[in-house]
Amino acid sequence: MASKFQNRLVGTIILVSIGVIVLPDVLDGKKTHYQEEIASIPIKPELDSDVESFEVLAPEDDSASLPPSPVEVVEESVEEVEPSTVTVAVTEVPERNQYQESAWIIQLMALKNAENAENVVKDLQKRGYQAHTKLENGFTRVIIGPDVSKNKLERQITELQKITGSKGRLLKFKPLNP
Fold first, then answer.
1. pTM beyond 0.70
2. Cα separation of 34 and 150, whole Å?
3. The domain containing residue 114 runs over which residues?
4. CATH code, domain carrying 156
5. Domain total of the chain
6. pLDDT tens digits, residue range 132-160?
7. How many CA atoms lie within 13 A of 7 on its CB side?
8. How many angstroms separate the CA atoms of 114 and 118, rounded?
């Protein structure tokens, strides 16, 4: 037969195991289940009736604030219909930039990485060159100039090739607003 101690030990183990299994469920209180909330993104957004509408106004005539274009007055003929009437023909003369046909630049290289191009420009500026960058078609071009002396820039091409390892091209300078 089992002793009294063994019976008490088995009884205590059973009570403790029931307490461990049942008591957490009893003392837990209200059970909440966590579920992820999923919001669907509509394919086509629904339009509200409160859509903003803008009134398109007629353009204002702002030509008075512009400087007059350069014109050349040519006297064609003088007819004496009345003593104070003179017929005058007006022809426009395009304005020319004084450097448009005589300035030159060196296009040294075109790099995809703008940061590398800026580093090359900083290095060239430290060496005394008039270096700039120009963003064009996804590339950053390194440009030297403009300068009116073509011979000076031709000499600089060989110097720049020794410094950067890139042979530049001599091009005519085309200003943005001729």
1. no
2. 77
3. 104-172
4. 3.30.70.1070
5. 1
6. 898 888 899 999 988 888 888 888 888 88
7. 4
8. 6
